[in-house]
Structures are given as C-alpha cells and as structure tokens.
Hints:
Elements: E1 7-11, H1 15-21, H2 26-46, E2 52-59, H3 67-90, E3 93-98, H4 106-118, E4 125-133, H5 135-147, H6 155-161, E5 170-173, E6 192-195, H7 205-217
Parallel strand pairs: 1-2, 1-5, 2-4, 3-4, 5-6
Bound molecules: 3-methylbut-3-enyl trihydrogen diphosphate (2 copies) and magnesium ion.
One 3-methylbut-3-enyl trihydrogen diphosphate is lined by residues 12-17, 58, 62, 73, 175.
Amino acid sequence: MKNKVNHIAIIMDGNGRWAQNQGLKRSKGHEKGAEVVREVTKYCASHKDINFLTLYAFSTENWKRPKIEVDFLIKLLQVYLKKELALYLENDIKFKAIGDLSRFPNSLQDLIIKTQKKTEHCKALTHTLALNYGSHDEINRALKSLNESDLELNIENIQAKLDIKENVDLFIRTGGDHRLSNFLLWQSSYAELFFTDTLWPDFTTQELEKIIEKFTTIERRFGGLK
Ligand code: IPE
Ligand code: IPE
Ligand code: MG
C-alpha cells in the first residue's frame, strides 16, 4: 500500500544565496521565494491527500539578522498576506499563523487575525506559516499552559497544547543543509526527511511531485515490523 501524505512541512531555505548568486540583494530572493510559496500552496490545495502544509517563514533565531533584513521580511509578509486572501478563498485554503506573534507589529498581527477569520471555513488545505516560531519556544509555551491548567502532564495533553497538533508525514528542507533548525521537532518524530540542494526560489511543484512520489513508496514502520 502506498503512503498517503497528509501533512507536509517545509524549511524554505536558500533565498539569500539565490539572490547573491546573481549579484542581487538578499531581499530579491525573499520576494522570489514568496512566489514559490504561492505555487506550492496552490499545488497542495489541489492534491487530494494533502490536508496540511506548514511552512517555516521566520524562526525565533532569525531576529539575529540585520534589522534591515528583518524589517524587509515583516513588510513582505504584510504585502503577501494582503495579496493572497483572494487566492486563499478561490482555492478553498484555510490560512493559519503559528509561533509567538506578539513580537510583530500590531498591523501585521491584525492582518493575520483578519486573514485567519476570513478563511476559517475553507477545507481544501490548512496552510500554516510559522512566524517567530521555534520548537523549543512552542514546547515551552505548551508546558507553561498545561502547568496553569488542571490537566495532567502527559504526552497527549502536551501535544494538544502545541501550535501544530498534526504529526508531520513529509519534512522537506531546501537549500542544501541537512539540519532541522528548531522546526517542528516534536511533530516530526516519525516524519520522512527529504533534503534537496535546490534553493527555495528555484523549487518547483514538479520537484515537489517527485519527492511526494518517492515518499509514497517508503516503508514506514513506526518502530514495528513489516
Ligand atoms: C530562508 O532563506 C528564508 C528565511 C530564513 C526568512 P535564507 O534567508 O535563510 O537564505 P540563505 O540560507 O541565507 O541563502
Ligand atoms: C531556517 O533557515 C529558518 C527558515 C527557513 C525560516 P535559516 O537559514 O534561519 O537556518 P540556519 O541558520 O541555516 O540553520
Ligand atoms: Mg538560510
């Protein structure tokens, strides 16, 4: 039996190098990267098995970058989200943002809340952007919240408090590095990991299709025997 891919998570890495390779400013790579996000999201919404697409857009560690790049990324997110609402509605895509959003400007937080509300009813795909997200921060927030509740400390209750509750099936990182960079560590305990040298702005739905095809043939044992 072929595996079904319910949840795809992607570390979209390599925007800066893509731009620098062609003598462009890093910001140009982020702009091109946003276009690829659109194509990949549309593809996943049209795929019958895929219900969740979770994309790493800004990590808790990315604040270490020069202010000019951080400011550009925040502005790009704002422009992107405003523009994408029509596409989400057209393609039945539910938008979600996860991470500690409180550090972002109010205007971006408001736009996120508005976009989430307007796409709440959509069913084809839950498209989640991880913003100021890090697994350590997510687990820390979940444990704090559990500690303040009357619930028992157990695996089920921890998972229920996480930003992302669905386990990842297929975990992809573009950009050539083989590391997880604090992304969905809990949820990826049994994910199939795929690393590609393709820089995110060059990533295509054709390459994604090939990865999914390979994924469907892998023997997933989850610790058991086949
Ligand atoms: C990923 O691309 C996008 C973000 C982290 C926001 P990078 O900006 O990390 O690009 P490289 O890895 O420097 O090429
Ligand atoms: C991971 O990429 C974060 C995002 C894609 C948002 P980074 O470029 O920040 O990761 P490292 O620093 O190479 O591990
Ligand atoms: Mg990078």
